[in-house]
Amino acid sequence: MKVLFPLFLALLAMLPFGLVAQNPVGAWKMSVPDENGKMTPMKVDISADGTYAVDFGADGTIENKGKYTLDGGKMTIQDTEGSDCTAQGVYTLKIEGNTMTMTRVSDSCANRGGPEGVMTMQRG
Predict the structure, then answer these.
(1) d(CA 61, CA 55)
(2) Pick from 80, 78, 70: which is nearest to 112 by CA?
(3) Is 16 left (phi over 0), alpha (psi -120 to 50) or beta?
(4) What DSSP state is assigned to residue 25?
(5) Burial class (CB in 10 A: 0-12, 13-18, 19+), 83
(6) Mind listing the pLDDT tens digit for each residue in 12-53?
(7) DSSP secondary structure letters along 63-87
(8) What is the pTM of this model?
(9) Which residues, 6 or more positions from 29, have their beta carbon under 8 angstroms from its beta carbon?
(10) Which of 105, 81, 98, 78 is nearest to 27 (CA)?
């Protein structure tokens, strides 16, 4: 019993780090294909207030804005400005190191998530 208690305390102390690891707040970047198949850089800024901003072309111009919620390992996103589709999309969220992967669970916005329904971003 004396050995298990320190182990329990160590695991309890590490719990917040595991929760922080799944926090998507910050700047992210990825590349997406344009209508001609050319890869275009994209920046996504996810704020702690439940909003995000998307800069297609990484040129400093925000083209889309939206809101999000987190529920366990899922993130629900919804564009609020700059998009013709304002339906909600639900994605599983996995963050490992500097990589965030969002995998579509459901989303009626056809272009969001690409054809495979997976968005992989790097912190930056």
Answers:
(1) 6
(2) 78
(3) alpha
(4) -
(5) middle
(6) 344 444 444 479 999 999 998 878 888 999 999 999 999 999
(7) -EEEEEEEETTEEEEEEEES-S---
(8) 0.80
(9) 41, 42, 43, 44, 58, 121, 122, 123, 124
(10) 98
Q: Which CATH number fits domain 24-123: 3.50.50.60, 2.40.128.490, 2.60.120.620, 3.30.360.10?
A: 2.40.128.490
Cβ-count burial 33-44 (b if 16+ within 10 Å, e if not)? eeeeeeeeebbb
Report residue 43 as tokens. 């920046």
Most distant pair of Cα atoms in the chain: their distance:
65
